[in-house]
Design goal:
About 50% of the residues lie in helices and about 15% in strands. It is of the alpha/beta class and about 210 residues long. The protein has one domain: Rossmann fold (3-Layer(aba) Sandwich), CATH 3.40.50.
């Protein structure tokens, strides 16, 4: 009886996690129902709000069909739940993933996060083994600077994961966002977490060669 209750509770947690993002995911898929051209190759950017609020992604890379399927507040486990809707449906030749930022804030261990990211990787490769996956490092921020050691540990593990497979790439946005040993102060909006145009210019510089 006790085991049954535990399983019931866990299923409820998973269900709530899915439902909390289902409307946002539905809105993303509805948006691209009219924009996505299946006859063209696509590049998917997905992950948490640092991707979601990057509004000029398509304009930054005008020679590519770019799908921005970022959803705010998400963690790696949430992207795992919606991998089919947010990634596989668009048959991408490349996938850029930003997850781990909210996970660390939610006190998940880097090892646990990497395990979930590896499951996302496996789903993508099972769908198309030729897909290139680019993992974007966790970024430093003013509001979460106290967690910097955990973010750096996550980034080391993420980079290590990409070293044994040529289809996997790692892009470091951590170091370019630093001013010496401190995070740059003028690249964020008022919440100290999300980036302004200066912050996204740093990301664009770091990522552009992997897109093109």
């Amino acid at each position: 009886m006790r085991v049954y209750l535990i399983l019931l509770l866990l299923s409820g947690i998973v269900s709530n996690a899915q439902s909390s993002f289902s409307k946002e995911v539905q809105a993303i898929t509805q948006k691209y129902d009219s924009l996505y051209d299946a006859s063209q190759e696509s590049i998917v950017f997905t992950g948490s709000s640092s991707i979601r609020v990057w509004k000029d992604l398509q304009q930054r890379f005008p020679n590519h069909q770019v799908i921005n399927s970022g959803f705010g507040g998400s963690q790696a486990v949430d992207l795992l739940q919606f991998t089919n809707d947010l990634i596989l449906n668009y048959k991408p030749k490349k996938v850029f993933i930003y997850e781990g930022d909210n996970d660390i804030q939610s006190k998940k261990r880097p090892k646990e996060i990497i395990s979930t990211i590896a499951q996302i990787r496996d789903l993508i490769f099972a769908n198309n083994p030729q897909t290139e996956i680019v993992f974007i490092s966790a970024k430093p921020s003013i509001s979460r600077w106290k967690l910097r050691r955990k973010y750096k540990r996550l980034n080391r593990k993420m980079e290590k994961m990409t070293l044994t497979d040529g289809r996997l790439k790692y892009v470091d946005v951590w170091k370019p966002m630093l001013d010496g040993r401190k995070v740059k102060q003028d690249i964020f909006v008022s919440d100290g977490l999300h980036m302004n145009s200066k912050g996204y210019e740093i990301w664009y510089t770091a990522l552009k060669n992997h897109v093109n």
